[in-house]
Design a protein that fits this description.
The protein is of the alpha+beta class. Helix content is 20%, strand content 27%. The chain is built from five helices and twelve strands. The chain has helices at 3-27, 94-105, 115-119, 147-151, 234-243; strands at residues 46-52, 67-73, 123-124, 139-140, 156-162, 178-186, 193-207, 224-230, 246-250, 261-262, 271-277, 280-286. The strands form four sheets. Strands 5, 6, 7, 8, 9 and 10 form a six-stranded antiparallel β-sheet that branches. It has a two-stranded antiparallel ribbon with strand order 1-2. The relative contact order is 0.11. The model is unreliable at 89-93, 106-112 and 266-271 (pLDDT under 50).
C-alpha cells in the first residue's frame, strides 16, 4: 500500500470520527438547567383591629355601621387598639407578641358585651378618619367627664333648670326630648297673672345626672333638667330662674322641627301689646 493511500485513509478516518461526534451532539438531548426556587416570604402574623368605616366628625354618635374589623400586622399593634380577642398567628418576635397580648387585654371589661357593642352609642370627641383605629381616648360615653361638652352643638350652652313632677310633665320628659319653657308670674298691678313662653324647642340633655333613660324606662322624676340653649338666649333662662318657678312643656315628636327660639308672652285677660326690643318680640298685658 502506498503512502498516498495510507494518508487518504487516515484523513477519511479522522473526518468520520469528527462527523460522528457532530451527529451525536445534534441527536443527544440538551441539558436543561435546574430551575431556581425562590423561597416565599413567611406570612406576617395578623390581628383584627376595630377601625372606623367612615370619616367620623366630633359629636357623631357611634353605631355598628360606623365600625368594622380590619387585619393589622401584629408588630404594628398599639396597646390602645381594640382587637376582636381572637388568638393571632404565632409571632416570631417576642416583643411583637407581647404587644399583641397587651392590645387584646386593653378592653377586657368590654369583652363581656363584645368590643364593637361596647362602643355602640358612644360620642366622638376627637375626629377619626376612615380606616383609623377606634380607641377609647377618642370617644366618650354618658356619665364620663367631658360628655356634656361633646354632646353640645356648636354655639349652644347647657343650663340647668329646677323641676319636679308637676313642672316636668309628670316625669314623662326624658333626655333627648324637646320642650318649651313657660313661666307664670304676677303682673305689675299685683292683681292679675301673666304667663310667658320663655324659650321654645329646647333639647333636654339630662335629667339630674342621667343622660340616657334606663332600659324600658318611661318616666324620670328628677330635681334638675339640663337644657341645651343658644348662647345668645342663656340670659333668658337665667333671668327666668330669678323671677320664679318655670314649667317644661313636652313637645310632640311630630313638632320637633326648627331651631330653638325665644317665646312671646301669651294673652291672659285685658289687651296684649307686642313690644320689640333688640330684634326680639314680646307681649305685655295692658289694662
Amino acid at each position: 500500500m502506498g503512502a498516498v493511500r495510507i494518508a487518504i485513509f487516515a484523513v477519511a478516518a479522522i473526518v468520520a470520527i469528527v462527523l460522528a461526534f457532530f451527529v451525536r451532539g445534534m441527536v443527544a438531548p440538551k441539558k436543561v438547567p435546574a430551575p431556581v426556587v425562590v423561597a416565599a416570604a413567611p406570612a406576617r402574623p395578623m390581628a383584627n383591629v376595630l377601625v372606623a368605616s367612615r370619616d367620623l366628625p366630633v359629636g357623631a354618635r357611634l353605631s355598628a355601621t360606623d365600625m368594622s374589623w380590619q387585619p393589622w400586622p401584629i408588630e404594628a399593634l398599639n396597646p390602645n387598639f381594640v382587637t376582636d380577642g381572637a388568638a393571632p398567628a404565632p409571632a416570631a418576635d417576642t416583643a411583637a407578641k407581647q404587644v399583641a397580648q397587651k392590645a387584646a387585654q386593653t378592653t377586657t371589661a368590654m369583652m363581656s358585651q363584645g368590643p364593637m357593642a361596647a362602643f355602640d352609642g358612644a360620642i366622638v370627641k376627637e375626629p377619626m378618619l376612615n380606616g383609623e383605629p377606634v380607641i377609647a381616648r377618642k370617644v366618650v360615653r354618658g356619665g364620663q367627664s367631658g360628655y356634656m361638652a361633646v354632646v353640645l352643638l356648636p354655639g349652644m350652652r347647657a343650663m340647668s333648670v329646677p323641676i319636679n313632677a308637676e313642672t316636668a310633665a309628670g316625669g314623662f320628659i326624658l333626655p333627648g326630648d324637646r320642650v318649651d319653657v313657660l313661666q307664670s308670674k304676677q303682673a305689675a298691678d299685683g292683681r292679675t297673672w301673666v304667663s310667658e313662653t320663655l324659650m321654645r324647642n329646647l333639647r333636654v340633655l339630662a335629667i339630674d345626672q342621667k343622660t340616657d333613660p334606663e332600659k324600658d324606662a318611661r318616666t324620670i322624676v328628677g330635681a334638675v333638667a339640663v337644657l341645651e340653649v343658644p348662647a345668645a338666649d342663656a340670659e333668658v333662662l337665667s333671668r327666668g330662674k330669678a323671677q320664679g318657678e318655670m314649667q317644661l312643656a313636652l313637645r310632640s315628636y311630630a313638632d320637633l322641627g326648627g331651631a330653638a327660639s325665644r317665646g312671646v308672652a301669651a294673652k291672659r285677660g285685658g289687651q296684649g301689646l307686642r313690644v320689640y326690643r333688640g330684634g326680639s318680640a314680646s307681649e305685655v298685658l295692658v289694662r
